[in-house]
């Protein structure tokens, strides 16, 4: 069989720890035997980010703008412990936050369905996709520790240098903490458009929630912008498609999500999406079965697994143990990117191969062959727990 040829390259972003190990196995065993893989490679592993002063991350984001499609391995977000572990010169920003900052856009996460893996919330009969506004708020906040007694103020100076607003945040009587966060109408608007479009294309209801009763300017702005865009541009199409837009308070939304049967897109503000996507993916099975794609307003795509670098497994791997780390979400990151590349470049074989590889993953799990994270969730078949290497080999047999 001839290998499938690619036209434009994918932006390939390598990562850290256990997922970096999986990354290479997936390329060697599941991609390169079938595709003449064309990628522009960026090493986002922490040592190389340190070496380049994190320039490699920004370069990768601009490459996605140039080529349109990227695939990313999970990466370490540096914290105090990592600074010590890797001897970092500074606590580098999360690569995902840097890339989102450059591309703007919305992250959609959806669970991978395998017949033998039942959600732990037994009312859920259909997938719940989740959209995370990938811009601003606490992820781009300015914050510091307040050293002691003094006044904290929020000041806005307009472009002509005139001070338009000055508001006392708090008169500190002692040490404390302070943060200021922001968002932009333009980013909220493009988030709303992305979500309404996704709902329409997937024919799913859409839910959105904020805390507008408490946050009377900040969250209220999100609510108003969504409603205006819906009324003006999507209401008719939603009604035609027989789907609904539903707004409620965030605490009401979380209660309803548990009682509902699913089958909708849940649009979330940045922090809500961060937290709720982990909750949903765990409840739908495993983090190893959750896919993630960032779609920018310009129509650029970045695919990845929703989970992190699976550090605990990596430390066992370093001791020479075989681990049973689930490679499926990382495989789906590749298939998502390859399918999109195929669509954009008109290469049907490439998209067809992505379908075939995904199908092989799901059928392998449904046959009972799975990694340890899925075994406890499996119903109806006797699970046979395999190592990551065996899992990939069994998927390859099916391909
Ligand atoms: P994590 O890597 O997602 O792992 C948390 C736990 O979930 C694992 O210890 C494992 O549980 C289970 N798990 C996750 N993915 C799995 C898979 N594919 N197969 C089997 N089990 C899986 O999250 P974390 O431990 O909080 O973070 C580790 C590192 O990843 C951190 O440095 C963090 O900054 C980074 N991170 C990166 C991204 C990203 O790049 N998008 C996202 C999140 C976190 P058991 O140990 O119980 O088996
Ligand atoms: Mg999270």
Topology:
Elements: E1 4-5, E2 10-14, H1 17-31, E3 35-36, E4 39-43, H2 46-51, H3 55-67, E5 69-72, H4 80-85, H5 95-103, E6 106-111, E7 129-133, E8 142-146, E9 150-157, E10 163-172, E11 176-180, H6 185-202, E12 205-210, H7 218-241, E13 245-249, H8 250-259, E14 264-268, H9 270-283, E15 290-295, E16 301-305, H10 311-318, H11 328-345, H12 348-366, E17 369-370, H13 372-375, E18 384-385, H14 388-398
Parallel strand pairs: 1-3, 2-4, 2-5, 5-16, 7-14, 12-13, 12-14, 17-18
Antiparallel strand pairs: 6-7, 6-15, 8-11, 9-10, 15-16
Structure report:
- The chain is of the alpha/beta class.
- 44% of the residues lie in helices and 22% in strands.
- The protein is built from 14 helices and 18 strands.
- It has helices at 17-31, 46-51, 55-67, 80-85, 95-103, 185-202, 218-241, 250-259, 270-283, 311-318, 328-345, 348-366, 372-375, 388-398; strands at residues 4-5, 10-14, 35-36, 39-43, 69-72, 106-111, 129-133, 142-146, 150-157, 163-172, 176-180, 205-210, 245-249, 264-268, 290-295, 301-305, 369-370, 384-385.
- The strands form five sheets. A ten-stranded mixed sheet has the order 4-2-5-16-15-6-7-14-12-13, with helices on both faces. Strands 1-3 form a two-stranded parallel sheet.
- It is globular.
- The mean pLDDT is 95.
- The structure holds NADP nicotinamide-adenine-dinucleotide phosphate (NAP) and magnesium ion.
- Residues 274, 278 line the site of magnesium ion.
- NADP nicotinamide-adenine-dinucleotide phosphate binds at residues 74-77, 96, 287-288, 304, 307-312, 325-326, 371, 373.
């Amino acid at each position: 069989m001839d290998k499938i040829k690619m036209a434009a390259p994918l932006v390939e972003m390598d990562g850290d720890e256990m997922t970096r190990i999986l990354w290479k196995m997936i390329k060697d065993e599941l991609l390169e035997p079938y595709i003449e893989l064309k990628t522009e490679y960026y090493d986002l592993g922490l040592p190389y980010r340190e070496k380049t002063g994190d320039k490699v991350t920004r370069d990768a984001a601009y490459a996605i703008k140039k080529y349109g499609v990227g695939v990313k391995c999970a990466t370490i977000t540096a914290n105090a412990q990592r600074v010590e572990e890797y001897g970092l010169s500074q606590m580098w920003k999360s690569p995902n936050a840097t890339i989102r900052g450059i591309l703007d856009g919305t992250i959609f996460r959806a669970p991978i369905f395998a017949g033998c893996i039942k959600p732990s919330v037994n009312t859920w009969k259909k997938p719940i996709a989740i959209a995370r506004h990938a811009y601003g708020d606490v992820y781009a906040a300015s914050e510091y520790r307040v050293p002691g007694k003094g006044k904290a103020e929020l000041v806005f100076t307009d472009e002509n240098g005139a001070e338009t607003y000055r508001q006392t945040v708090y008169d500190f009587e002692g040490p404390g903490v302070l943060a200021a966060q922001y968002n932009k109408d333009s980013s909220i608007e493009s988030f709303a458009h992305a979500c309404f479009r996704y709902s329409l294309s997937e024919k799913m209801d859409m839910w959105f929630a904020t805390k507008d009763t408490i946050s009377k300017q900040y969250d209220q702005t999100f609510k108003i912008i969504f409603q205006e865009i819906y009324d003006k541009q999507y209401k008719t199409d939603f009604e035609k498609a027989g789907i609904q837009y539903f707004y409620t308070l965030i605490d009401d939304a979380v209660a309803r999500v548990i009682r509902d049967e699913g089958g909708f897109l849940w649009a979330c503000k940045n922090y809500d999406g961060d937290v709720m996507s982990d909750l949903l993916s765990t409840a739908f099975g495993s983090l190893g079965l959750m896919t993630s794609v960032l779609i920018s307003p310009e129509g650029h795509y970045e695919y990845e697994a929703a989970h992190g670098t699976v550090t605990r497994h990596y430390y066992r791997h370093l001791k020479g143990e075989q681990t049973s780390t689930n490679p499926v979400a990382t495989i789906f990151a590749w298939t998502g990117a390859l399918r999109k590349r195929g669509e954009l470049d008109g290469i049907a074989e490439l998209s067809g191969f992505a379908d075939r590889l995904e199908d092989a993953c799901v059928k392998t799990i449904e046959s009972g062959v799975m990694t340890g994270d899925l075994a406890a969730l499996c119903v109806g078949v006797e699970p046979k727990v395999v190592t990551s290497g065996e899992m990939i080999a069994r998927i390859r047999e099916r391909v």
